[in-house]
Design brief:
The chain has 1068 residues and is of the alpha+beta class. Strands 1, 2, 3, 4, 5, 18, 19, 20, 21, 22, 23, 24, 25 and 26 form a 14-stranded mixed beta sheet that branches. Strands 6, 7, 8, 13, 14, 16 and 17 form a seven-stranded antiparallel beta sheet that branches. The model is unreliable at 470-506 and 1026-1032 (pLDDT under 50).
Amino acid sequence: MNKLLRILFSPRTTLGLLVIFAVAMGLATFIENSYDTETSKIVVYNAFWFEILMVLMALNFFGSIKRYQLLTWKKMGGFVFHISFVIMMIGAAVTRYAGFEGMMHIRQGKSTSHIVSSTKFLHVRVQEKGKEMNVSHPVGISQITSNYFDTSIATLSDNNIDIAYKNHLYNAQQMYVPSDQGGFAIIQIRVNDDGGHEHDITIRDGDVKMLHNVPVAFNNNKYPNSVNITGSIGNLKISFLGEITQKVIASKEISTLERGVYGAFNTKHSFAPKGTGLSIKLNSATANNRIKYVAGAKGQSGPNALVLEVSYKNKTQEVTLTGGAGYTDNFQEIPLEGIRLQLAYGVKKIQLPFSLQLDKFELDRYAGSMSPSSYASQVTLIDPANGVRQKHRIFMNNVLDYRGYRFFQSSYDKDEKGTVLSVNFDFWGTWITYFAYTLMILGFIWTLFNKHSRYWELMSKIKNLREKRNALTLFVIGVLMSTSITAQDNHKHQQNKEHEHVATSQFSVSETHATKFGALVTQTYEGRFAPIHTVAIDVIHKISKKDYVEIPGRGKISAVQLFLDMPLNPDFWKEQKLIYVSDQSINDVINVQGERVAFRDFFTPKGDYKLRKYAEESFRKPDGKRNKFDKEILKINERLEIFMMTFQGHMMDVFPIENSENNKWISWDDKIAGMELTSNIKFINEDLQLPFFSYSNIMRAYFISLIEATKTADYSKADKILGYIKSIQRQPSTLGLIPSEAKIDSEISYTNSNIFINLKNIYGLLSILLLVLAFIDNIRAKKSKIVSISLNVCIAALAAGFIYHTYGMGMRWYIAGHAPWSNGYEALVLISWSSLLAGFSFMRYSKITLAATALLAFFTLMTASHSSYDPQLTNLQPVLKSFWLIIHVAILTISYGFLGLGLILGLFNMVIYLIKTPKNEERLSLVSKELTYINEMNITIGLFLATVGTFLGGVWANESWGRYWGWDSKETWALVITVVYTIILHFRLAPKLKGEYIFNVASIVGFGSVLMTFIGVNYYFTKGMHSYGGGSTPNFPMWAWITIGSIVLLIVAAGIKEAKHRKTVEQK
């Protein structure tokens, strides 16, 4: 027994359990992506073995209390931090076994006192001798394991009803098959319409089918105007309220059935009821049929079906129940001797001790857009037992709590007159978990400031090493320096080539006036109000992948100048090489070479679109089957469409619709823009003297004045009309809607400054300089004043860049009106910022660490500048408008910067292991050990931030939709990150895993969990709330494979070299 306990409480068991836990969770996300969420829960998350695994981890921790003396005051912070996870497991268990979730649907003006469960059940209702018994059995269906279950229901006659699982059918489809024990009749008819389409239709006895809005009935009198087919098999008749033309199929002989007359309906004739446009022919008619369900094919929809075997008094029959999620009270009667048995497959109605009445549902949209900004339910809480009648407003991130139930705004009906609330009953589970979260944060802070903790021990070791350390050899630095300088020279040479401009001449619209035009407010397609300057840059960048263009004879043309001139001179711009083409195959199809081609190059002299055939094929293909060529075709299509919309003026939504309900703005070519204006802005026409005062004519007058101005260089009239348009935009009714002029100027300034593109280049240069200077500083036994000053100058420049970076993020926050970490681009910008924060945090221990973070910041911003990440400022979805989300995402994303630094420091140490020689062994060993200690401190902080960020995400989820943990792929992989780095930090407790090399390798490999969370889940998974793949999984790039292979080779080579070194040291 003692031996068993020693094994259970050993560090190896700790690591083993954590590894199994992480692998199981990661595997479950792939199961979910390949099958469905329910399968992943049955196989892993809700499985008994997974619960046992968590119990073993808790027991293992309790055993570690004595082993590591965690109850002593010196280690109390660690105890509090670790015990919080045990309490979390207890909270999760309470949630799992005592709590439940459901949905409540209420129509406006109605009240509801029940919810429907999220879990599916087999409902059994037995009625015997005047008594009724109801039993519900939970049903979980996995696609990869046996779903067998059985249950036995005792009856008053002492004969049990045995029910056993046989099969489950997804998206079940009906089929009619012959029955040996009686059944119903069916007819199979062929219908031809006047459009030349042919359909084969099966109609069951007593049913009606609608064919092109014409009811065709088989022994059904529901519709008086239907084509009626009546009678029994072998004696079928047809009649209609109008005449029927009947034709003998063999002889083509035609006759007429008068109105209301019954004619023989058989396979020898076709029948054409007058005025329906249909011709009907009987294919076959059979009696004694039954329904059989089969699983639906891919793309088909329908209810799921549960196939059971029901046994009673030694008789067994197969029963198929349709239903599943969303189905309630869909009972099906099963014939049994002397007993009434009813079965249903669906969710359970849960009665509440009170009711909610929906007084009004409110839906606010972004101005001029159909995208919801927020939605809310005004409800009345009615609890007669307690004399309660209260008004409440439920909306996203604002919940209603009552008697242990929490109500969250989840969705709404299409007609916007009904609401769907998610409901959670888990008071104790939630607060136990929140208590654990609080202990976790307090425990870590305690550990961080406890001078007896591992963190402070590492600081002490680093301090001792700094007195002995030396860095890399000058030879290596010389090689690195020469390579870097050569690369920089080449880059600068290329840049100089790119920036050599053709001699400029006067452009059709002056840059001064274009700048004024750029400050005009426009409404984007999603309802955001932005300066035309921003829209122009976005549009031109989408078309040409450049922020400006250069035209021979005209020189450099800004995006706003081009955006304004395209509607004035469309024919000229159709001839210019503006459309970006990234695939040679497109050039081959249109027979024009070059990275940018003209709009007219995509059309034949007759105006035929050269890519039409390919575009139609690409659009027809499902997302998952589109290849690289298909995707490029669709991108080209989008660029051409944007180009056309620009020169047609569709992108200039600068005019507010008078008395618009949703604050919609329109462009000058819109139909509404041609209507006469009647508001108080009519005074403008006293000056313009337009024959008909409308938005369209105001814009035409503006364009005419521009054309004149390009000839005379007198822009006074154009400036005046532009001023009038601005005054139209800034009426009293719109002032609280559109951004202030100061905010518009700020957005233009932000867009022009290219903050993060410039920072990318700055970080790249500074990272190289800092690496070189930091290594030199470590090499020299005697400090060099020049090196120290240069190092301090570079650090100051990096600090200035960091402040500029912070300013840029603040500008995005101010302009967009929400925290700048709501999409992939902004998340990368935040990771870059947080990596520098990590570097400055450890700068006093090692300047190399700061250089490493600058390098990481450069690579992160370089990734953000990739075309896959859109830097556009956008509106925010309602669920994302939460304080908890801002904190959760910020902390979690910042942790990625610290963990990314762990990757870089691990790689640095691999290089150090490779270049060790007997001459520099002592110095480099001290450097690698110092970097390893810094890395451990860095990962400790990164792990803390990742853990806190992950579980604060649970708080956000719970406050937003009532579930603090749901095993979504993103939250699961965030938890995998915390487990992976927990394993890495605990390697030191296992004798065979406590080496410096293993820790550094682990810090490299562990970052794969971060990449999986940030990239894999977001872009390669097609299921889950955080997936942006949507069925179109991007190809894994070749450079990524090369990078991974290179890192593996580096690790292996460093391992071999380090093993040889250790062997040599041992022999000495």
